[in-house]
Design the sequence.
């Protein structure tokens, strides 16, 4: 059983479309991170959210941490081919050891 | 990220052989994670070092796996003997704190045939 469930597992869209990916858990996290991973590389941190209900924006990416700090979402507006990659969420429960979801694989077609 | 250098980038070995994966931390850090990534299971924590001492090795699959962190700049993960099910991408990342996030190396892709 995966502690963090990400959905959808795969997403294939056209350039310019909007999308939302989700990260859900029954556990409460002290903080949650989103990473993007490109083929042949390690995950790269996009954002860390700490406060329940927190919303952070990074250009066309909007991250939200659930009020109860059990879930999070990532919304991309007007997706571009450069957004293609594996999006991973990682939760911390007090310790500094992050637990990762399996990720959402996004392909944005030109 | 240039701060974490993993070698080799790719390793193909035969079942039963010993494999050593290396992780170099350019800036030095006394706290480090080793993760393994597969399609089926995603990113799994193998071992966590703090002050160069293994704190949590509950993710190490079995006695065939061992890891060391002799100093703040270097760590190794050894598999002996290797098996096909060990095929995966192995990552190391220094622990820079939950708020700063984690900087992963580019990984070592291991294929055991």
Sequence:
């Amino acid at each position: 059983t995966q502690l963090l469930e990400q959905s959808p597992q795969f997403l294939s869209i056209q350039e310019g479309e909007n999308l939302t990916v989700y990260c859900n858990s029954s556990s409460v996290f002290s903080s949650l991170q989103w990473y993007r991973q490109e083929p042949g590389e390690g995950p790269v941190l996009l954002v860390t959210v700490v406060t329940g209900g927190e919303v952070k924006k990074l250009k066309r990416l909007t991250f939200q941490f659930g009020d109860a700090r059990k879930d999070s979402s990532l919304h991309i507006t007007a997706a571009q081919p450069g957004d293609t990659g594996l999006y991973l969420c990682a939760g911390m429960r007090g310790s500094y050891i992050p637990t990762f979801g399996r990720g959402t694989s996004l392909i944005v077609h030109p | 990220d240039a701060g974490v250098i993993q070698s080799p980038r790719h390793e193909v070995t035969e079942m039963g052989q010993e494999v050593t994966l290396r992780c170099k931390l350019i800036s030095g850090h006394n706290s480090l994670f080793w993760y393994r990534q597969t399609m089926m299971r995603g990113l799994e924590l193998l071992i966590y070092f703090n002050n160069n001492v293994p704190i949590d090795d509950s993710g190490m699959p079995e006695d065939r796996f061992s890891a060391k962190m002799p100093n703040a700049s270097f760590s190794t993960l050894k598999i002996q003997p290797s098996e096909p099910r060990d095929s995966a991408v192995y990552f190391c990342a220094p622990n820079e704190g939950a708020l700063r996030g984690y900087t992963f190396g580019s990984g070592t892709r291991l294929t055991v045939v």
Q: What stands out?
A: Chain B has no helices and ten strands. The mean pLDDT of chain B is 92. Chain B touches chain A through 26 residues (CB under 8 Å). The two ends of chain B are 29 Å apart (CA to CA).
